[in-house]
Amino acid sequence: MKTQYIRRNLILILISVLAFSCTKFEDLADDPNKAVNVPPSMLLSEILTVLNNIGDEGAWEESQRDNQFWVISFDYYGNQDYNWGEAPYRYNTLSNVLAMEKEAQNLDSKNKYEALGKFFKAYFYDYMSKRVGNVPMSQAMQATTDTPITAPIYDEQEQIYKEILNLLEAANDQITVARAEVGTANIAGDFFFKGDLDKWQKIINAFHLRTLISLSKRNNDLNIASRFNTIISNPAKYPLLESIEDNMTRYFSDENGNNYELNPGNYGFNRNRNIMGATYLDLLKSNNDPRIYIVADPAPFYFNENDPKNLDAYIGANTGDEQGPMQVASDEGKFSYPNEARYYSSYEGEPYIQIGYAEQEFTIAEAINRGWVSGNAENHYTNGIKASMDFYGVSEADKNTFLTEANVIYKGNNTDGLSQILTQKYIAFFNNSGRESYFNYRRTGIPAFHIGPSNKNGNRIPLRWKYPQSEFQNNKENVTSALSSQYGGSDDINAEMWIIK
User: Fold this and answer.
1) 275 has which bridge partners?
2) How crowded is the C-beta side of 292, counted as CA atoms within 13 Å?
3) Three-class DSSP category at 349
4) Helix axis angle, 357-369 relative to 224-232, nearest 10°?
């Protein structure tokens, strides 16, 4: 993992291939002093760096505040509102994917790169579409072709997800071919799994399940239940994650640029402004969850050293509360902060799960609960809880005690059971997997998110982000048409996109 940032800026040498979907190009003369070919391994490393939750998608970043895992008390450093702006597009990264596939064409390992390329395309189109709705796909990244398209149309979200599912199916098929050709050899550039195709195939299929469950409201349109069942009923063809050892995980280090967000060097900067969120912390308290003692410290004002595990001393702040009063209460020691011993003792922090086993197990449990597939939902629900607790190092005794809690014992394949699955899935997502916990909330309404005076969005949690402003400059006709067909012409963050209707 220490090399993941080294290559990031080197990939800018990709000239024409790094075309934004709507950027206009002029004819350029070849520069003999610039590299024309880039090794696919270097391109793979750059793609993985983007996928690896950079920007506001990592641990203790803005995405996790939006997920209501923590709140920020100092208005100087941020706010609590949900008045969201534009979403980021990922066409530059998708151009790297195309370049990687092209550069690998003459290699014996081309099938590996092409299989991963299909997965990356599915991943980044899903990333964009679930944030805004319709996006360019069928005509995207064709500005430098023989018949250039510099203003691509916006494909309907239904068509986008049909293609995403096709890409994931094809990725699984092709990685099987690649495994037969090259085994699981170490291929440079893959800092996640060191070229282990077995692990990559499991990740592809786990992501396939994530995508299918995200489309639960469109089951009849896309035959989601049948697709889900095809994967679950054929483990030989569609291998899945078997434990947390298979997780797609980012590891931090003491190397400059790869430090965990909360670390000894940042203690004086952010210790007193990151407060545990009540939406998350109260769920742990309600079930006597042992994870609470691992992720949070008790509020000093309420802590009694003679009763160190008194849950009443664990107080989270509401995401919608005003920051002024919140800061006063924080200064008085009336809120819980992240566990100092866990998060501030080193620069490595804790691993960051991008796609994980616990999520997969809760997803399968939900599918069984919904009647999509046969199986024992309780077993998968329990597997998800245990996997999350294993991540935190919870003892076997504490795990077993927790699983006997009245509100934790699975209530069956009904509405109550579904609520349990989704609640535990939210808890397992804590500070991991970008905004997946928000997307699950948006789809299901579970758990209830807090809304208060700091919301600044008419007391609503947004349902989408706005289109990038650059689209209105470079592709105005098509982005305007997309808004008209989806949202009555308004780039409204509270409008419902197709996948959640």
Assistant:
1) 71
2) 27
3) coil
4) 120
Q: How many CB atoms lie within 10 A of CB 82?
A: 21
Distance CA 279, CA 286 (A): 11
Mean pLDDT by 10 residues, the chain (501 residues): 42 40 41 66 95 85 96 90 96 97 92 96 98 98 91 98 98 95 78 93 98 97 97 98 97 93 94 95 98 98 95 97 95 97 96 97 98 98 98 98 97 98 98 97 98 96 98 97 98 98 96
* 125, two tokens: 């189109």
Q: Locate 297 and state its tokens.
A: 């410290």
Burial 168-197 (b: 16+ CB within 10 A, else e): bbbbbebbbebbeebebeebebbbbbebbb
Length of the chain: 501
Q: How far is CA 164 from CA 120, 159, 212, 364, in A?
A: 10, 9, 10, 20
What gap in Å lies between CA 483 and CA 117, rounded to an integer? 30
CA 149 to centroid of chain Cα atoms:
31
Residue type at 129 in one-letter notation: S
Q: What is the DSSP string of 418-456?
A: HHHHHHHHHHHTTT-STTHHHHHHHHH--SPPP--TT--
Where b means 16+ CB within 10 Å and e means fewer, 426-455 reads bbbbbbbbbbbbbbbbbbbebbebbbeebb
How large is the C-alpha radius of gyration of the chain?
Answer: 23
What pTM was estimated for this model as a whole? 0.93
Per the CB < 8 A criterion, the answer to whether 467 and 437 are in contact is no
> What local confidence, expressed as pLDDT, does residue 92 receive?
96
CA angle 57–59–62, rounded 5-degree value:
50
Query: Smallest Cα–Cα separation from 364: which of 192, 194, 176, 235?
Result: 235
In which residue are the tokens 């009647």 written? 371
3-state secondary structure (DSSP) of residue 352:
strand
Cα–Cα distance measured from residue 137 to residue 160, given in angstroms and rounded to the nearest whole number: 7
Nearest to 381 by CA among 415, 421, 414: 421
Q: What is the 3-state secondary structure (H, E, C) of 366-388?
A: HHHHCCCCCCCHHHHHHHHHHHH
- CA 50, CA 54: separation in Å to the nearest integer? 6
For residues 349 and 190, what is the distance between their CA atoms, to the nearest angstrom?
Answer: 22
Phi-psi map region of 316: left, alpha, beta (phi>0 left; psi -120 to 50 alpha): beta
**Phi/psi at 32 (5° precision):** -65, -15
Query: Is the Cα dihedral 224, 226, 228, 173 positive or negative?
Result: negative
**Nearest in space to 58 (alpha carbons), one of 199, 258, 244, 193:** 258
